[in-house]
# Entry
Amino acid sequence: WIIASLELRQRLRSRALLVLAIVWFCVIGLVTGFAWVTLTALYGAYGGQADGYPLFSLIVYFVLLFGTLVAPAISAGSIGAERSQATLATTQATLVGTWSILLGKAFAAWITGIAFLVVAAPFVAFSLLVSRAGAVQLLLALLALALQIGVFTAIGVGLSALVRSTVFAIVL
# Structure
């Protein structure tokens, strides 16, 4: 928990994460709005009742895409950045073990990914309200997304530990 809290404090001091969250909010808002307008127009063109279920699926898959692409990129630089800033050796010289460092950084990256899931939650909830999906589907979708983000952030931290180049770890 010590490593995770230090990593989270360091991430919160950086304004890049806040800017990325705002950009994520705007992008998912635009995608939700565009998809809703398009679906409403398509159903209206054929004289049918608008059904928001495709919107719910689209937004969940869009957040899943985020988890697949951005969450590992957020986590893949954690150990490599410390290695390049020459602070990893100081951390390794303490009584904190290697697994504690890896798990702490992975947990901090997962919490960061969950924060982005919270940013996307209003749009997922909106898509649920206009669809025929139930609250259980929303809960299962958010749980699956949280687990998926956790897996991909763990992979990112693992790649960060294995690959010396921060940029290459993020791309990989």
Remarks:
- The chain is about 85% helix and 0% strand.
